[in-house]
Amino acid sequence: MKKRLAQLAAVALGVAMVGSLAACGGSTGGNNAGSAPAEKSGKTASGDTITVGVVYPATGALAAFGDGTEEMYQYAVDQINEAGGVEIDGSAKQIELVFADSESNATKASEAANNLISQKNVDIMMTAKTADTTVPVAAACERAGVLCLSVDTPDEAWATSDYKVSYHAGFNTENELSAFADAWDLAGVPQGGKVGVMHATDTEGQTMINAISDFAEGRGYQAVDPGAYTSGATDYTSIINNLKKDNCDAVVGVMLTSDFGTFFSQLKSSGYLPKVVTVAKATLFVADVDSAGPNGLASGLCSEVWWTPNHPYKSSISGQTCKEIGDVWMEIVDGYDYAPATAGYDYANVEILYNVLKNAGSLDINDLTAACDSLDIDTIIGEVTYNDAHYSVQSLCTGQWIYNEDGTWSQNIISASQVDGLEPNAEIQPLQ
Predict the structure, then answer these.
(1) Containing H/E element for 56?
(2) pLDDT under 70 in the chain at which residues?
(3) What is the pLDDT of residue 334?
């Protein structure tokens, strides 16, 4: 596999390299915000290698998020190394990745990060795949003064602290709900129509009922609270009856895959269906919609889409298009016939690393955070530039899962109002 990754990286470099990777170039401007430690750390690169730790969920409930992570990170790093590496402290350095499993658990994620810092002596940390991993890893890096670069967690879920050495690129609640509202409009939910808000009894659920309700009412809809559920519940009858009684035109929520599967199968057998169902987190991958029920039970569901191979962006490392990156992902990751959104975000995190290192020219934490504060680059997930709270807001589009006659799934893009240059490839289809 590693040999194949190196071969693919070498081929990709012939596509279009963007100047010398060891040069000090890269866009500047951006935001000169954020706080860095007051004194120089004095840290310099030892030997010819920059050691970068990567914490992600390889096992556990969130393992689907981690599919292909090691392959995609290594592929992007191989592109950099094959071109000569990055100039640090006056000499070219190679990047070495060290991976650790968060086991889909916040405590284990913190332990993994601490081990990489204390035992592996990593120079920089990268992480991704929900707040259960990114937040505790960032906290460990803050304590140790190690730069942490993360992606793909919702911005508000990540921005829980006054970060000094941690930076993030994700999407915010407004962009997510705007993607949902596009689906509501396309499905014919009228102004003043009722939107039922699914929410759990936990902290996230209580936060989301307020955020979603405020958003819906601000857009001219009526938000309906059908009652909270406990995660792991097996009976949603009372909630479904409340949605039906209020004749909700749309149902929206942020749910775990297992909870949503139980709810949606009961909803479909109830005799009542809204015009559209938009749910975050629960239906990001084919495995998720497959698990909702047999024979395409979940066909017609709408969700936010972080990235697709059809996005109109190019790699800041190689000049490859999103389509080319997606094709590589399918080739190097076994068992997939499509490239999920996580593929683009995995590659983009290495793009961010590369540009930060290139612009800093040093492993001193002050130089690294200064490079982050001024970062303004175009990546395969769009422009990345960090705000005062150390996060970059990325755009979303709206997808709909459709079950095909041959038993496969397609995720159609039905709206792309946030992404300039990306066109929808299908019209919305009604729930059946």
Answers:
(1) strand 49-56
(2) 1-46
(3) 84
Q: Which of 335, 338, 287 is nearest to 309 (CA)?
A: 338
Strand partners, 379: 382
pLDDT tens profile 382-425: 999 999 999 999 999 999 999 999 999 999 999 999 999 999 99
**Among 228, 201, 215, CA closest to 173:** 215
Which pTM value belongs to this model?
0.86
d(CA 116, CA 107): 14
Instruction: Please give the pLDDT value at position 257.
Output: 87
CA separation, residue 298 to residues 58, 112, 356, 424 (Å):
26, 36, 41, 21
- CA–CA dist 75, 326 (Å, integer): 12
* Predicted pLDDT at 44: 55
Structural contact between residues 43 and 363, judged by C-beta atoms closer than 8 angstroms: yes
Q: Residue 399: name the closest of 311, 314, 305, 319 by CA.
A: 305
264/132 Cα distance (integer angstroms): 25
Strand 91-101 versus strand 49-56 pairing type? parallel
DSSP output for 127-169: EESSHHHHHHHHHHHHHHT-EEEEESS-HHHH--S--SSEEEE
Report pLDDT for 335.
Answer: 78
Q: Give yes or no for a contact between 402 and 412, defined as CB atoms under 8 angstroms apart.
A: yes
